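Much of the work behind modern protein science is quiet bookkeeping, done one molecule at a time. Below is the pair of lines this work produces for a single protein:

***
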Amino acid sequence: MDIQTLFQISGSALGAEKRRLETIAENLAGAGQADAKKQADTRKLVRMAGELFSRAQAYDRAAAVYERGGFWGDAAKLVLGLGQRERAAELLTSHNMLFSKFLIVGHATESAEDILRYPDYALSHGVKLQNTTFMVMTPYPATELARHHEQEGLIISHDWDLYTNFGAVIEPNGLSAKQLQTLLCSVIASYSISRRFLLGASVAKVIGRLLESLLVHLQVALRHPRFTIRDVELSLWEALAAVQGEREREPAGGPGSGSPGMALVLHCEDRPPLEIGMFRRAGREVLAIRVVEDRTAADQAEPAARAMRRVHLSIGQLVALSRRLDLYRLSHDSMTLTWNRSGFQAAWLPSLLGQLGKLGLGLVGMAAFHARTAVRGPEWVGGTWPAPPGTPGEPAQPA
């Protein structure tokens, strides 16, 4: 039973009406739930929720801070602290209830190191009953948040197309907008592939989820005023390099099952290759993200990874293809055909075919890159391929 279907969590009203929650529990328990255990569980759950959220005095204190001219973010800290959120997650998990978390990066007191710890925190609540959405601090117009950031001189763009909760338009705590955008990509990619992996997904699905995360980043970065084309390329590489590490799980198919493994190797001009792969070690499956300075040395250090099938992808080609494609239109048409085929209009077909043609040509180029990189073998590490389209200083979004 979803707690949101029992009552509406709305500010101080919830904290001030603990008895109302208990009454709801009693009514639900007696309204068709014949099972005594279900009745008891329902009463217990809502009473615990009432205990958790009965913060009327805290809300009063928060309102007082706000009324005295304080920033609402400071007032909000008086209401629900991290300990209470942990308690909420514990309660929901103990009752086998699905829940979602929304984590925002870019708070005034956060460092880059703090932000990079978000994926581990999100995964600490398990992977089956919860999902986490990461967003970036976005000061929407005419809000207290916007007024505060304007006064502090932290807002760097009023391009409303970036105000999607995924575009970095502020520069908090010494972080540039480019750094903040890259950090958002880091935590989304790290959490997404780690959760898929820990849920038992195949390596192909894990890598597919990674590419989805990178494309979301590209949609924003390519129109961001602070990014050049070269910045976009480097941000993809840096986002993954920042979350190097390993996660382990029991083999999805049981002991002795599975293939030698597979890896996606991302190549960025003037940077060592970056490898995201899955392999077996000591009877367990390992998901590893690592920068490969020297392929021979890396394989000697991790013999189990040597047999992985590697797919080579040029970050420069990925960015160039994303610039040629209308990713918003392509995703819109694809989702319409998938979920509401009758809603697809014939007038959209020429545009969709044009986008698919560009995508096909881009994939052919990527396949050629993979072929010639694979032929060069493990001794080729950081050779410089021809520069991607556009000079390094060219803006990502044409003027």
